[in-house]
Write a structure and sequence with these properties.
With 219 residues, this protein is an alpha/beta fold. The chain has a single domain (3-218), classed as Rossmann fold (3-Layer(aba) Sandwich), CATH 3.40.50.150. The protein is built from eight helices and seven strands. A seven-stranded mixed sheet has the order 3-2-1-4-5-7-6, with helices on both faces. Strand 1, helix 4 (70-76) and strand 2 (84-89) form a beta-alpha-beta unit. It is globular. 3,4-dihydroxybenzoic acid (DHB) binds next to loops. Keywords: Methyltransferase, S-adenosyl-L-methionine, Transferase.
Length: 219
């Protein structure tokens, strides 16, 4: 099987199951015009998260890493009217673009963008109600910290989903010493043995290449 076939398959899935409407296309345009890195989820990946939120019946979602609000829009659209997405972003430019994108998506009532260091913000969230769903998609070198903090912000039955746990297959190679590869490789192994959860890695091949989600259910 060739890469071309896998890409064609992702396009096929997008066409039949994950079409972007005008709002989502505009979000990408605005993000691009603002100079944000085009590293948001693919539509097919985002639709998977959207469905997981609905299957979960989640009412409170925490996202670590807003970027321009693309994944956040797919997540927030899966919430009921009285649901809430809190999304954390350290880059002020990205936070501003995300806020404006949520506004234009008509989601401002359901979404709060909190700018700043995610771990510090998560400390402040300890006094709020727990989250039903956490999506981790920020600095790969801090994934172990995000994961441990997420574990303090959830309840039994919550889902934690981590993006970029395959990294074009780089996590398979222990000789790669770069922190963003190594930390994720080590965390993948750790979560596989973590008695607090049940989990599975879900590889994805999209226009962004080979990557994957780690889907974690808290016992
Ligand atoms: C990068 C980060 C991401 O979250 C992603 O999905 C793809 C790439 C990056 O930092 O390169
Ligand atoms: Mg990502």
């Amino acid at each position: 099987m060739t890469e071309e076939t896998l890409l064609a398959l992702d396009s096929y899935i997008q066409k039949h199951y994950a079409q972007e409407d005008r709002v989502l296309k505009n979000i990408l345009t605005h993000s691009n015009e603002a100079g944000l890195d085009p590293i948001q989820l693919s539509p097919t990946q985002a639709k998977m998260l959207h469905l997981l939120v609905k299957i979960q019946g989640a009412k409170r979602i925490l996202e670590v890493g807003s970027l321009g609000g693309y994944s956040g829009t797919w997540l927030a659209r899966a919430l009921p009217q009285d649901g809430k997405l809190i999304t954390l972003e350290i880059n002020p430019d990205a936070a501003r673009v995300a806020r404006s994108n949520f506004e234009q998506a008509g989601l401002s009532d359901r979404v709060e963008v909190i700018e700043g260091d995610a771990i510090q913000t998560m400390k402040g969230l300890l006094k709020q109600e727990p989250f039903d769903f956490v999506f981790i998609d920020a600095d790969k070198t801090l994934y172990p910290e995000y994961y441990e903090f997420a574990m303090r912000l959830v309840h039994p039955g919550s889902l934690i989903v981590l993006d970029n746990v395959v990294q074009q297959g780089k996590i398979l190679d222990p000789s790669l010493k770069e922190s963003r590869n190594r930390k994720v490789r080590e965390l993948n192994a750790f979560i596989g043995l973590d008695p607090r959860v049940e989990a599975i890695m879900v590889p994805t091949f999209t226009s962004k290449g080979l990557d994957g989600f780690l889907v974690v259910r808290v016992k």
